Amino acid sequence: MKTLFAAASGFSESASAGVDAPGDLWSAFLGQLGAALGAESVSLQLILQGRQAQLWQAGAALAVPEIASLEKMRNARVYSQLDLPHAEGGQQPLRALRWAVGPDGFAALVLQRRERDFRAADASQLSRLVPYLGSALASWNALGRERARAALERRMAQDLGAFWLRLTPSGRVVDMASGMRSQFGALAALRLQPNGWLAFSDPTAARTFRQALAAALADPATSSLVDLSRAPPVQMVIRSDGPAGERTLVAILRQAPLARSLPVDHVAEYFDLVRSEARLTQLLCDGFSLQEAAQELGWTIETARSCSKQIFARMGVSGQPGVLRKVLTSAVWLR
């Protein structure tokens, strides 16, 4: 049962401390089940909307029943090779069990041997597993959807340059967003020390950080801003926000990504520009004047002016502020 619950969550008791990525443990459960019931091959199929969404297998790679056969099975009944729908004569000994998963899906567990048949006691043990198998696979499926949503939201936040840190009331980092550790290498204004404390390059920012901690602890409804750097602009917001029963704070950092960090071809395609126009657009959005952008690109100022007019026309704006507004408020940053 422990292996079944571990498969449902993706985490086992033996997982290393600090491991936060789930693993696929269903094959381990199937291996244990097969050993307990003397099966040479154990397979578990998840069928959603009439299609195989997942297949796990342990032991010998024997052929699994077709979906058409599984669809004819009744839930919670243990089938043999003799009464399995659409079973062919002379099929190897097997026991199959099906249960519902959500409103439009089901799962089928199939145990097989090459020679001697299963015992009646084996079918009885499978029947007793039905309530646990249904709950475990439903939990695994729901957790998978939640993790997919969380991964999408995490990627969107990172595309916009946003990350989070979880802090103790004294300001020590106890947890952080995926990718934040590597982000520290690109932050000159902030460094994470091996003991979990933050080191600030600007004494004013360090003092403001301590004041923000105190304000968040004094009033959980408040949030305080800490300016970490002006070039490039990096800011942090601190507020009280922790799991139930934990007295922690969260710090949300944002370093707005440079337009030049976007692939030139991506910008060109999104705004229907040629590559030279896209490169100039990126520089303008990163704060370059037209003169500075021309120097950066190795152009004359006349070439830059001519290119900027083409950009204005293609984007349907009347000047550089319109270009900035068009790009900075667009979804070009979300990839």
UniProtKB/TrEMBL annotation:
Species, as recorded: Puniceibacterium antarcticum
Protein name: HTH luxR-type domain-containing protein
GO molecular function: DNA binding
Domain of life: Bacteria
Family annotation (SUPFAM superfamilies): C-terminal effector domain of the bipartite response regulators
InterPro entries in UniProt: Sig_transdc_resp-reg_C-effctor
GO biological process, one term: regulation of DNA-templated transcription
